[in-house]
Write a structure and sequence with these properties.
Strand order of the largest sheet: 3-2-1-4-5-6-7
Strand content: 5-15%
Oligomer: single chain
Radius of gyration: 17 Å
Helix content: 40-55%
Largest sheet: 7 strands, parallel
Shape: globular
Distance between the termini: 40 Å
CATH architecture: 3-Layer(aba) Sandwich
Bound molecules: NADP nicotinamide-adenine-dinucleotide phosphate
Number of domains: 1
CATH superfamily: NAD(P)-binding Rossmann-like Domain
CATH class: Alpha Beta
Amino acid sequence: MMDKIVLITGGASGIGLGTVEYLLEQGGYVPVSFSWGAAHIEEAKETLRMNYGDAADKALFLQGDVSSGADLQKLYEELDTRFGHLDGLVNAAGIIRLGGVEEQTLEDWERCFKVNLTGMFMMTKTMLPLLKKGTDPSIVNLSSMASERVGGSIAYSAAKAGVDAMTRYLAKDLGKYGIRVNCVAPAAVYTNIYVTSGDYTQEGYDKWSEDKVSLYPLGRIGYPKKDLAPMIEFLLSDKSSWTTGGRFLVDGGISA
Ligand SMILES: NC(=O)c1ccc[n+]([C@@H]2O[C@H](COP(=O)([O-])OP(=O)(O)OC[C@H]3O[C@@H](n4cnc5c(N)ncnc54)[C@H](OP(=O)(O)O)[C@@H]3O)[C@@H](O)[C@H]2O)c1
């Protein structure tokens, strides 16, 4: 069987990177990451080389901004030339800035929507011609527990509720092409998101993560490759061939 070509936005860090690693370990996939900063890309490449040796060369790391039409067009052309189709798209690129209505500025709100929701819409729209040519194509969007419960950021919660609604809409829209669309809604997962945003120092984030543990029935927060990637891979694969339009909580039981 041919390897599945899967584009993973935000694949150089956190849940996206955990997914790239898991797909490499499973075999049968060519993971293609598309993310913003050069620093995480270099770190990710080093980590993969250390952990997987030559097998790491199967993963591609491309750089660009999901909220830039020009970058998306360039990405489309590169993937069309290299592969001519896509079998999967994981929309994991995301940002946060903590704060409620009094703390957040219009700029915070607009940036959050531009990356987390509009970027997801534009990426999906741009890649659609390639997905239509894929085999059993599947899209997995990263939502959040915060789309249904109050989280730490008003813009983030609202944008993620948009992700849930867009996922359902796309499932109806794209079923006629055999393209499935689902979203995964994690609770706290140990990644770089709050340190990158400047909301926490690394030490502050580590302490915050430890403090959260007691809230979880399973007694711990989540980890990208161990806890999120298997659910994402399940939704990408034929194992979920009659599943579309779903929102899957991966939350250590905190919502129970
Ligand atoms: N961590 C959690 O607790 C949690 C919980 C629920 C949902 N989520 C969701 O899971 C997804 C992954 O987040 P994460 O926690 O893994 O965060 P992360 O470690 O910060 O990874 C996010 C990735 O997205 C990339 N990115 C950000 N803005 C981008 C842009 N404009 N264009 C292209 N790439 C961009 C980042 O690029 P850089 O490498 O340059 O930083 C990074 O590679 C997000 O959608 C997030 O909302 C996370």
